[in-house]
Design brief:
6-stranded mixed beta sheet, single chain, 9 helices, 4-stranded antiparallel beta sheet, alpha/beta, binds adenosine-5'-triphosphate, globular, about 45% helix
């Protein structure tokens, strides 16, 4: 279970302060895929980055597997971070290192023996279906393959939680689909809790069990994903669902016209 309680974060800028998160409360069940959706600037990245302390919240608590991660320091924080994997929109791979070295990196940092690292990297590359790319450099990979390396690296230390920061936003629809399917498989096989942020309703619809809608740093709606489509309550949710319906209607119209030709 992940519990977020009254989490707040304000950025101080030259132009004044920006409230990015305003007393956020969330409850995420172990083993579920939980989506946070919102428009640009709503606070999604700040929220997910607070979960592994890439960002420091001003106040509030984040409980992950019994630990309040906001209170951890030093070695305990490093240990907790090993159990929270993260994947990014632009993959964040080490360009000068091979696929093998990228995936091995967190294991080397964690101080595992070389033989254990080799065994684990091979296992994980097999899981993400990149066993044939061990010696390849990121520049020689497609976007989808890069994200698979990112996922493999995030899973190397066998985390309990995977955070996904717009992991499919830079990918074409077909590759997005394959990465979402991979995340679903991983969630099932490893019983891994996944928290993902997105501004794409289709991503939420395809993969998430539950969701929260974030608007101007506040959670304005939460529940099962189906609820969002059947009964959107917030302005953000209504806009997202409205745009998707318009798009589907237009596509239906175009396909209908096509049939008449
Ligand atoms: N390092 C920073 N310094 C100052 N302001 C920031 C910083 N990071 C984010 N913000 C501001 O905080 C608010 C929330 O930003 P955040 O990146 O969390 O939103 P987001 O929903 O992830 O947006 P996007 O989808 O565009 O990435 C925005 O107003 C943003 O401009």
């Amino acid at each position: 279970m992940i519990l977020v309680e009254q989490l707040s974060k304000t950025y101080l800028t030259k132009k004044g302060s920006v409230s990015a998160l305003d007393r956020i409360d969330l409850q995420i069940a172990t083993g579920e895929i939980f989506g946070v959706i919102g428009v640009s600037g709503a606070g999604k990245s700040t929220l997910i980055r607070c979960m592994n302390r890439l960002e420091e919240p001003d106040s509030g608590r984040i409980w992950i597997g019994g630990d309040d991660v906001t209170q951890l320091k030093g070695r305990k924080l490093r240990k907790a971070r090993q159990k929270i994997g993260m994947i990014f929109q632009h993959f964040n791979l080490l360009d000068g290192k091979t696929v093998y070295q990228n995936v091995a990196f967190p294991l080397v940092v964690a101080g595992h023996p070389r033989e254990r690292i080799r065994q684990r990297v091979r296992e994980i590359l097999d899981l993400v279906k990149l066993s044939d790319k061990e010696g390849t450099y990121p520049a020689q990979l497609s976007g989808g393959q890069k994200q698979r390396v990112g996922i493999a690296r995030a899973l190397a230390n066998d985390p309990d939680v995977l955070l996904s920061d717009e992991a499919t936003s830079a990918l074409d629809p077909e590759t997005t689909y394959s990465i979402l399917e991979l995340l679903k498989d991983i969630n099932r096989q490893l019983k891994l809790t996944i928290v993902l942020i997105t501004h794409e309703l289709e991503v939420l619809q395809h993969i998430c069990d539950s969701m929260a809608v974030i608007e101007n740093g506040r959670i304005v709606e939460t529940g099962p994903v189906a609820k969002l489509f059947l009964n959107p309550e917030s302005d953000t949710a209504r806009k997202f669902v409205g745009v998707l319906e318009q798009y589907r209607n237009r596509r239906g119209l175009i396909e209908g016209l096509g049939e008449g030709i």
